[in-house]
């Protein structure tokens, strides 16, 4: 099956978590907005196309189905792309972990937009400094420490004892945080040996390595979720 992925052009954003799964599996897919422009998403967002109406991208079209929300898309793709264990209990564990990643991604976004997503970062810099300090000192150690514990409990190499879409999402999460908070992530590094080793292994997977070296992998930038503002970063 050929999949159609819909996400905003110019940024990695939440769409990158889906894109990494498709790339790792060597799936046949079209990045629709990159080919046809962002306007191609509007009929879906306005409920004028067949399939379930998505609230926002990313969403995926597979045949006549339209699936939105990163975790739901990956749960849908996982069995077909061999990126999740077949056992229902293990598939549920993967979904749980992916939803926890989504929780942290939401907190990351709200760090640079703590008052309103409709306002520019420059309009809420004071509040962003306070929110970033909390994320750096409290939330990042809590979330990343949790994922480190999960890996330890599952053999130390993978989130689920075998390669899955969760490994790919953890790679993207760490890569984004490295761009956003280089000083803080370097300081946290010694406490995250399993996650750091996983990040390196994922980057060396053949299809992922080829993708990262291609033009399809957009660089992180200050229009996406993971934004680097030096004033928001510190070692603690």
Automatic annotation (TrEMBL):
Domain GST C-terminal residue range list: 87-220
EC number(s) given by UniProt: 2.5.1.18
InterPro entries with a match to the protein in the record: Glutathione-S-Trfase_C-like, Glutathione-S-Trfase_C_sf, GST_C, GST_superfamily, Thioredoxin-like_sf
Annotated GO MF terms: glutathione transferase activity
Superkingdom, natural source: Bacteria
Keyword annotations of the record: Transferase
Protein name according to UniProt: Glutathione S-transferase
